């Protein structure tokens, strides 16, 4: 077995550029997913027909592979006259997919807040929207931070699937140079290390955020 990792430094700037695009896709995708997830969560807990739309969205997206969803957006929508770039398709696909999972995360966080807080807010003259914005959602978000962080890491790793729709992320960049130099093991190992570094840094940041929120909560309790 002949391994030569000395070839990697020459291509490392391109790999780092691909890694930067991977992070960008994950951040935009999770931001879009948070918006969709919050809307779907509010629809699902509402006592209106909108909850059936939320149920269908969550059931459909969680029951189908992300790769199929990306194919439908990038290759399927042009048949309907809707053509999106690989970047837009990737962000939309990641957002729609993560939103279905975050909807359940936010729903659980909202329902974990005692109903007495809502009743007390309403009795003080605060409307439902203001109660949700100032009282319920901040607490639900704090409860949801660990699951939200996990979903961000999942989205970061799932973004590698965007390489199949010509997105020049870390994986596709590695594939391109691996096929050009026949150094597949070296490039894929480097890609794995970069993914591991990114997820490790994100995990550390999330743990720090959880610790700070927990400390603030304890301080307020005292």
UniProtKB/TrEMBL annotation:
As for subcellular location, the record says:
Cell membrane
UniProt-recorded name of the protein: Polar amino acid transport system permease protein
GO-annotated biological processes: amino acid transport
The family classification in the record reads:
Belongs to the binding-protein-dependent transport system permease family.
Residue intervals of the ABC transmembrane type-1 domain: 19-206
SUPFAM superfamilies reported in the protein's UniProt record: MetI-like (SSF161098)
Membrane-spanning parts: 20-42, 54-76, 185-206
Spell out the molecular function terms from Gene Ontology.
transmembrane transporter activity
How this chain sits in the membrane, per its record, is: Multi-pass membrane protein
- Organism per entry: Desulfosporosinus lacus DSM 15449
A Pfam family name for this chain?
BPD_transp_1
Keyword annotations for this protein, in alphabetical order, are:
Amino-acid transport, Cell membrane, Membrane, Transmembrane, Transmembrane helix, Transport
| The keyword Iron is annotated on this UniProt entry | no
Listed Gene3D superfamilies? MetI-like
Origin, by domain of life?
Bacteria
One GO cellular component term of this record is:
ATP-binding cassette (ABC) transporter complex
């Amino acid at each position: 077995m002949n391994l030569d990792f000395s070839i990697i430094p020459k291509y490392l700037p391109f790999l780092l550029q691909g890694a930067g695009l991977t992070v960008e896709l994950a951040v935009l995708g999770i931001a879009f997913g948070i918006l969709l997830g919050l809307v779907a969560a509010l629809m699902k807990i509402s006592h209106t027909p909108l909850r059936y739309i939320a149920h269908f969205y969550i059931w459909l997206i969680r029951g189908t592979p992300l790769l199929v969803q990306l194919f439908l957006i990038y290759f399927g929508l042009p048949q309907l006259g809707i053509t999106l770039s690989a970047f837009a398709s990737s962000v939309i696909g990641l957002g729609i997919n993560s939103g279905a999972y975050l909807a359940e995360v936010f729903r659980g966080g909202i329902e974990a807040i005692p109903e007495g807080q809502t009743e007390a807010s309403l009795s003080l003259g605060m409307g439902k929207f203001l109660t949700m914005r100032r009282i319920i959602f901040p607490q639900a978000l704090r409860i949801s931070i660990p699951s939200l962080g996990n979903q961000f890491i999942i989205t970061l790793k799932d973004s590698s699937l965007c390489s199949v729709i010509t997105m020049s992320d870390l994986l596709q960049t590695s594939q391109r140079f691996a096929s050009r130099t026949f150094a597949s093991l070296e490039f894929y190992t480097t890609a794995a290390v970069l993914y591991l570094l990114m997820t490790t840094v994100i995990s550390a940041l999330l743990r720090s955020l959880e610790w700070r929120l927990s400390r603030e909560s304890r301080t307020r309790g005292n």
